[in-house]
Write a structure and sequence with these properties.
Length: 150
């Protein structure tokens, strides 16, 4: 009977050891961020006009949060968008819409990691697209509402 208990313990140990070693033996690699559709950095900085008080960064960025609401005074017509993708191979693009109608696209200077966008009058939507070489396409959306009292 002692022999069978040791045999069971030995088999259990062998199984546990195999489970730990199988990924290493099969050449499995560490997980990478290749193909990630998230951003590492995202800032939305409205340009301040003399006498106006606006936040330096209008959002509290969380890489998992994909939709943001931004309230701005009607007088602000430009903003700086700072972005950095989690996947360094990802292409980034910014587009502006009014009532789901495309208004303008804005390229991002890859060396600087930011661009200036023109904000149309009234309420609008700004979308930051993240397109990695591998994987699906992702986006971050700003719903911009005008009428905030400075």
């Amino acid at each position: 009977m002692t022999y069978s208990r040791h045999l069971v313990a030995l088999r259990t140990f062998g199984l546990a050891f195999a489970i730990v070693l199988i990924p290493a033996l099969m050449g499995m690699e560490e997980p990478s961020c290749a193909g990630a559709t998230t951003l590492e950095v995202l800032e939305f900085r409205p340009f301040q006009m003399p006498g106006e008080v606006t936040p330096q960064n209008a959002i509290a960025f969380d890489p998992e949060e994909r939709v943001y609401a931004v309230e701005l005074p009607e007088q602000i017509h430009q903003a700086m968008v700072v972005v950095e993708a989690t996947d360094p191979t990802a292409d980034l693009a910014i587009q502006c819409y009014v009532e789901e109608e495309f208004i303008a696209g804005h390229p991002i200077d890859e060396a600087l990691g930011w661009t200036v966008i023109d904000l149309p009058s009234g309420d609008s939507t700004v979308i930051v697209w993240v397109r990695p070489l591998e994987g699906a396409e992702g986006k971050y959306t700003f719903h911009i509402t005008r009428g905030l009292t400075p």
